[in-house]
Amino acid sequence: MDALLNRPANATGDDTSKQVVRPDRAAAEAAVRTLIAWAGDNPDREGLSDTPRRVAAIFEDFFAGYEQDVGSLLGRTFGDFGHYDDMVLVRDVPFYSHCEHHMVPFVGKAHIAYYPADRVVGLSKLARVVDAYARRLQTQERLTDQVVTAIDETLKPRGVAVMIEAEHQCMTLRGVEKHGASTVTTQFRGVFRDDPSEQLRFLTLVRGRV
Description:
Layout: E1 3-6, E2 19-22, H1 25-39, H2 51-62, H3 70-73, E3 77-78, E4 88-99, E5 105-115, E6 120-121, H4 123-134, E7 137-138, H5 140-155, E8 159-168, H6 169-172, E9 183-190, H7 191-194, H8 196-206
Parallel strand pairs: 4-7
Antiparallel strand pairs: 1-2, 3-6, 4-5, 5-8, 8-9
Helix pairs in contact: 1-2, 4-5
């Protein structure tokens, strides 16, 4: 049975606010069969007969982020962190996502920093936030903004910085075919936005020179 998905916009930068009708598994598999035939092959031959089922299953993993509540990932915070008032940085968080324009992967790593105010969050939760947004059809620019917004609006720290570096297969496997080209996006809030020296410190730490 078709399901009506209503994912309201919220304080974590989630903009998937329109209601969409989600086809059932059989319809998804039928669509894969159509694409195989459109590509010029026979979806009934032995090597391809089970491919629609496999593709539908792996899409559930690729796009699992649509089912995740980012607010709940950051919901458990801790107020007991002593007198620590410096930057918290998690760098080199690996991720994969899919370009919303061509539905091919882009793969990279995220670097996240924040200055705690009243609360801190478990470090693994920052990586989970990246995954929750990455496992959707995305642009790198939106992904960067969603991660920084989720942390900023949920933790309310003194500042947040996010850098994402990724290689896009829509650029390396087609079109200009520039293998090894990477795209870097950044977003700053609070003290990172207002103080250029904090941006420089963040970038220096990310690059591993300190």
